[in-house]
# Entry
Amino acid sequence: MDFNIMLQAHRGFAYLILLAIAVFIVALLMTMFGYSGKISKFLRKSSLFTMIFFHTQAVIGLIMLFFFSPGFKAAKESGMLMKDSILRNTYVEHPTAMIIAAILLTIVNKKFKTNEKLNMSWVIMALIAVALVLWAFQWKRLFGG
Ligand code: HEM
# Structure
């Protein structure tokens, strides 16, 4: 496996995850503001797919980080990893925040799967996960600017 293939796969999944998260938020809002607060099939499916894409992305990202990334290796060797804000964001903050978000989404997905009614604490957990993703997302690297 070559670094560029992994990076392209990571980029591809990034678009998919943005889409999945948008659908997930719509499903969450529909359930929250629905009369019954009953967890719908739509919410269950959207949280499941978001979690599956996220886990795949985490595996690709971790393999890339520890085994392939020339940038991460160079940053470590030069001693600039934590000193340079861009390097720190890409190789430390991005992976850490995304892993925390993946854990939160996994918990939320489990709760939605095994319960009938929505609980506010799970909604907050889901919103924290989404906020972490939006903060740690590599917007500039994916969309330029
Ligand atoms: C969960 C654990 C994750 C890890 C460990 C991880 C790791 C990485 C690493 C190491 C890079 C830089 C690659 C390099 O230039 O050497 C990177 C870039 C990137 N990651 Fe992640 N990532 C994770 C999750 C995510 C998620 C969930 C998304 C999208 C929602 C995402 C989107 C991106 C994007 C768009 C880039 C920029 C790609 C580019 O510059 O071409 N990552 N990630």
Residues 3-33 form the longest helix (31 residues). The radius of gyration is 17 Å. The chain has a mean pLDDT of 96.
